[in-house]
Write a structure and sequence with these properties.
The chain has 242 residues and is α+β, with helices and mostly antiparallel strands. The chain has 4 domains: 30 residues; 90 residues, 2-Layer Sandwich (Alpha-Beta Plaits); 49 residues; 39 residues, no CATH class. 38% of the residues lie in helices and 15% in strands. It has 7 helices and 6 strands; from the N terminus they run ααβαββαβαααββ. The strands form 2 sheets. The chain has a 4-stranded antiparallel β-sheet with strand order 2-3-1-4. It has a two-stranded antiparallel sheet with strand order 5-6. α1 packs across α2 and α3 packs across α4. The longest helix is centred in the N-terminal third of the chain and has 21 residues. It is extended, with a radius of gyration of 30 Å.
Length: 242
């Protein structure tokens, strides 16, 4: 029976086999002793939020006058991996994520550069806009993950699962010692409108005009404006479709 030369060598020399196994064990123990260990491992701060206010402005104006200008400046930083933005009435929110190559020793330098870019963008913003504020988030690990699944018969009721998840998130956020709760996979509720073409024609309405009327009935849209000598505020009412 032919054996590979190396296997045959260890088979015929038991002392050599014992010596090799001992060497591997000693090397493994030595590597284990030199391995860095921390109770709370150092994590790089790679996420931050930029918030800017523009009182009285609609979401579209906030997007054009604030969000796009700030994003243009921030994209000049090569270490930024991703920008996500949300423009609401009177407020702009931008989530900044740094590249994975940014380590703990260089993260503060990059965030300082981000602050400089925000300061450079201030003259381009409307006079009524507030100063952009940067909040660097401390990295945390998820200590508890809860998933909602549909166990009933029929098509899953995702809207019901979303409401239950929001309710649980609120309760967990109020538990003493809870630092942060995050909801993933939430499905926004939609209202589907089926149109009777004959009735629509009889009412002398087009699909576009009907859509405009439905949008006007959405109470989440601004109900009006309050104008003062030095300010303009949007008036909103609580609720959804009337």
């Amino acid at each position: 029976m032919n054996r590979p030369a190396l296997a045959d060598m260890f088979y015929r020399n038991p002392r050599l086999t014992i010596l090799a196994v001992g060497f591997i064990l000693v090397a493994g123990l030595a590597a284990l002793q030199t391995l860095a260990r921390q109770e709370d491992p150092t994590m790089t701060r790679r996420f931050a939020q930029v918030e800017t206010t523009l009182p009285g402005a609609t979401a579209a104006r906030v997007e054009a006058l604030v969000t796009e200008k700030l994003e243009g400046r921030l994209r000049e930083i090569a270490e930024i991996r991703e920008l996500r933005s949300l423009s609401r009435a009177g407020r702009s929110i931008i989530i900044v994520q740094l590249s994975d190559k940014v380590g703990p020793d260089t993260a503060d330098i990059v965030w300082s550069e981000v602050r400089d870019k925000l300061a450079e963008a201030e003259p381009d913003l409307p006079a009524a806009a507030g100063r952009p504020t940067l909040e660097v988030r401390e990295p945390i690990a998820s200590t508890l993950v809860i998933a909602f699944t549909w166990q009933g018969a029929g098509e899953p009721q995702v809207s019901m699962l979303a409401r239950l998840a929001r309710d649980l998130e609120t309760r967990l956020a109020n538990v003493p010692g809870t630092r942060e709760t995050t909801l993933y996979g939430e499905v926004l509720e939609e209202v589907r409108v089926s149109v009777d073409a004959m009735a629509l024609a009889a009412a002398d309405l087009s699909a576009e005009r009907l859509a405009d009327r439905i949008a006007a009935a959405d109470t989440r849209s601004p109900a009006g404006r309050l104008q003062g000598r030095d300010s303009e505020l949007l008036v909103e009412v609580m609720g959804e479709l009337d």
